Structure formats: structure tokens, C-alpha cells
Amino acid sequence: MTIGGTIVTRGRTSLDTPTDGHHGWRPTSAHTAAVVTGILLLTTSVIAGRADIALIGIPGLLAATWARTNRPTTPPPATLHEPPGTATPGELTATLHLPGTTTAADIVHVRVTATGHRDAHLALAAHPHGRHVPLRLSSVRTGPQETFTVDLRGSRHHTWEEEPTQVGGTPRLVLPASAPLGRLPLPHRLRGLTGPHSARRLGDGAELRDIHPFTPGDRLRRIDWRTTARRSPDLDTLYVRRTYATAEATAVLVVDSRDEVGPDIRTWRGYGTLRVDEPTSLDLARHAAASVAHALVEAGDRVGLEDLARRRRPLPPASGRRHLRRLVHGLALAHPKDRASVHRVRPPQLPADAIVYLFTTLLDDEPIHLVRTWRAAGHPVVVVDTLPDIHPVIENHLAIAWHIARLERENRIATLDREGIPVISWAGSERDHATVRFEALARAAQRHVPGRVP
Amino acid sequence: MNPLTELTARLHRLRLRLTDPAHRPLPDITTQTGPTLRGWALRLALLVLTPLLLLTAAARTPDIPDGVTWTIAALSTGLLLARPTPTTAGGITVVAAVLLWGFTTEPLDPWALAVALLAYTLTRTTWWAAHVPFHGRAEISALLVGWRRDLVVLAATGLLGALAMLASGATVPGAVLLAALAIVGIAFLALATGGSPRDDGRG
Fold first, then answer.
1. Fewer CB under 10 Å: which end of chain A, C or N?
2. Which of A51, A54, A125 sits opposite B142 (nearest CB)?
3. pLDDT tens, B107-150?
């Protein structure tokens, strides 16, 4: 049958939408069961001549008849409101809006699903003027994240039921948070004509280098009259105050996002689902890199970003809060790509005199090659170990595999240590010591550069 | 391998299996609702209500052996817990009516009002158990939706029972009459004050 140009079969269109005004509602088996039970008991009572038997079936029969005469109407569809913009870890929220009318559902059955979470089944009382239900996920993961899917079905008078509907949230980008860090290691040579640090060359900084006799080229305002009066009362020689120039440091954050592994090594094979309440290696790398970037940018240094899994143009070093937002955004978007684990023939090109912060799990030899290349080019390197604390496993073959992988990894860390590359762990309780390690490295680097005062 | 070493290894493996973090339950989605009741509590209510209904129905029938009554109650309870559907609840209501019938010639037993109340409550609870999973939650306010309609339905049932009693010429105990009058009064009061937004008894 065709109604208004639309093909209708059994009261429904080709898109499976009902054609009548009360679409989506149907009486359930509760209605049928109440009617059948009531009629059966009434018949039995007539046959047996017992009115009390009929009484047992009458409440259900009355309620079913009452409900049948009150056919519900379809309310406006439910909506899911999510905060605009990006999110931070643990802040994946949304609000489910259930619109309502006095003639629509009186109870709404809700099933909320989200990746990595247990489904939430709720039966909620519908308000005639609508109600809002706040939802929140327990995920600590960062990067692009799937959010809620909500299945809804209304019911009225325990008899009518609405056809299920679904509303879904949009995937959201969770930006990594940053932990406060103290001082960080800086490159041996600072660059630029201005910046937060004192360079070793003469310039217009605030750091006093020495008192020197006036020479051609010295500015008159640098003459130290007090010293001149003390050393040369006859004003034969003028003395000037010479200061160090200021400069800025350049750091490049290199995130090894070729793989993402969790604490459960059963998921390393690519099967199984990573838990959302445990950070993966990439989450730790994002967090560590965001913390380092935040500390460096706040100190006024220039920070760039390289992603080992991507061949696209990296974020060049720059400073400022807007650039920090770009960095954090770039970190959140870093993720493993297909064929990303293939050996990179050419390591990322770095600006001259930049310090490299490499965030890696050290599960293969690639980081070692990269570090050696950078060291050969004169770049100081700090390796941040982002492998999470691994859970013990019961399976023998996995335990043996992890034992071998752990030994190889320890061997790599020992190699780096022998070559003078600091390795700082960022997982579990080791993260609390990272600040102290960075501070110690900054102090150690300071001792090798006499004359530089932070 | 040394038996003691093997035993230690087995114990270590057992401890690992019991404390394996990968086998923890997945985290919950946090939702902000009013006070709720778990789905298992509804099934627990069924566990109480079903035998109560059947034993109440059989209480006035002396001819049925206790063993038969308890067997029927146990089977019905198990069936309803396994399949909490309206059809099962209707079937148990019919069984309760048969037990009340008792093959006696009494035209009307006021005890039937209590059985009717329990049967109606069982039907409602079964509906909720069918719609709320074991670990799901139902808001208390949702459970109370339609209480005015339920009260009116029960009052109408009581009224019909009283009329049937009067028509049959049976003597009505004073307490039963008072209880019926009280239910009717409360029902009318519920209808009169039923202007709140959550009143679904008026359609």
C-alpha cells in the first residue's frame, strides 16, 4: 500500500517507522497475561460458583483495562549533551536529557554503555517536564576516546512499552594532564639573543660577569662610577660593568608512539581490550611529555614535538602558552599507526643545540639507535621510560616471554646508563621520584658549565 | 620436582590466579539518580512474595497436605525466579486461586482479598524483576510510580468483594468491613490529591 507516496507495509514505512500518530508504543505481554488471567479466573468463579476466585483476577484486569484506555503519546527524543571542546582524564562526562509530557512514558529504562565499562541499567521515573541525568566515565586514558551510547525505552502504566531508541555521544579528545616538575636539564649551549637563562657570552643580561676597563664599543651607561672612583680617582681609566647575555633553551620532545602496551601482557599480542582504568604506555608518555613541556614553556624555553609513528611535519620549537596548547593537542593525537614499527632509517632532524627528551618503552633496540645518533650529533638526551608496571601472569609461556623481554629491556637500560644517558622511569611509584631525578640531572648539568647561574 | 617445591609453586600460582588484576570487574559508569534499589532486591522480594501468596491461598483449605503445598510453593518460586515474566506470574496467580478454591462449597471467603492483594503485588514485582537486570538499578521514585492507580484498583476490588459478600448473604466480620472502608477512603483520597506531576493514574 502507498500512502502519500510512501510505501507502507503493516503500518510501517520502508524506514521501519510507524505511520500512525502513536508510533513506537505497543501493549506488552503484561497486558495480555493480566487479561487472560482475569478472564480465566472469572470463568472459573462462574463455573465453581465462587466469587472470591474472581476477586483474585480483578485487580490485574482493572489495571490492564485502565492502562489500555490511556494510550501514551510519543515524547520528543532524548538527547545527550556533552561539554564542548576537549576533556581531561577522569572528566569524560555527559548529561542525558529525558524530555517528558504528562501523556508519555512514566518510567524510562536506560542502558548506558561505554567502551571498557560495565553497562549501567537504570529504571528512572520520568518527569512531565523532563529531567537531566548526569553521566561520568571512570577512564584514565587519554587521546581520542569513545564515549557513551544510551539505549532508551519508555513504559507507561506497566502495560505500554515504547520501541527502543538510541542516542550516542561523539568521540572526544582527552588531553593529557601535566604534573608539576621543578628544574629540568637544559642543553649545554643556549641560543638566541634573549631568554630566561644566562648565556656564557657577554651581553645585555642582568648577570654580572666582571668589571672591566672601558674599551671602544662599550656603552656609556655601563660605566660603574663607584668602581671607577675607587680604582681610578683621577679618572684616568673608566670601568664598566660587563654582564652575561641572556638566551633560551631549545628542547624537542620525541614520543615513541609506535606501540601502545598496557600492564596486562596478555593484551600485547593485539587481542583483548586494554582496561580504561589503567594507563597504557602511551598515556604515560603523553602525561610525561605534557609535564615536561609545561615546565619548559613556563620557564620560557622553546619546545618542539616529534612523533616517531608519524612521518608528517613535526611541531617546530616555539614558546608561549598557545604553543603549549598545540603541543598538548599533538600529544593527545599521537597514536600507533600501521607499519609504524618499521625501522626508521633516518632519525628525526633536530634543531642545533637542542636537548632531546625521548619518551619510550624501550621494548626494542630502535630507541638505542636513535639516542646514539643524536648523541653523535651533540644533542644531550634524556630518556623517559614509559612502560607501565606489568601485572604478574599465570600462564607459563607468557611468564617466560615477559622474563626474556624484561631481561632485554634491562640490558638496554644498562647500556644507556653506561653511555651516560639518564633513564627516568615514569610508571607507578617511580613517577614521584621523577621530579627529584630531573632536579638532580639539572644540577649535574650545571656543574659542567661553569659560570652559568640559573 | 620436590613435592614441597611443587606445592609452593602451586600455591603461588593459585594466589596469582586469585589476585589477577586482569580479572577485576570493569569499572562502573557513574550516574546521578535518586535513591535506587538493585535488581537482586526485586528477585529477593519475589522469593518472599511467591511462597507467601501460595501459602496464604492454601491456608484456608485444610484438605491439601502440607507437603503438596510446600512443593507447589517451591516449584513456583523457582520457576518465577528463573523466568520472571508476566505469564509466569499469571500462572502462579491461577495456582493460588486453585489453592483457595479448595473444592469447598463456601460462596465467598474474605480471605480472598488478602490473596488478591498479594497476587497483584506479585504481578507488579515480577514486572519490575523482568525489566531490571540482576545488577541493574531502579529508582525508588520509579517503583512508586502509579501507586494511586494501584490503590484505586485495590479499593475497587475490595468494594466488589463487599458487594459480592452482601449479595451472597454471608456475614461480614467487622474488621474486614472496616479494612474495606479504609481502603476505599484512602483510594478516594488518592484520587482527590492526585494532582502531582508524577500522577499517572489519570491518564
1. N
2. A125
3. 667 778 888 999 999 999 999 999 999 999 999 999 998 888 88
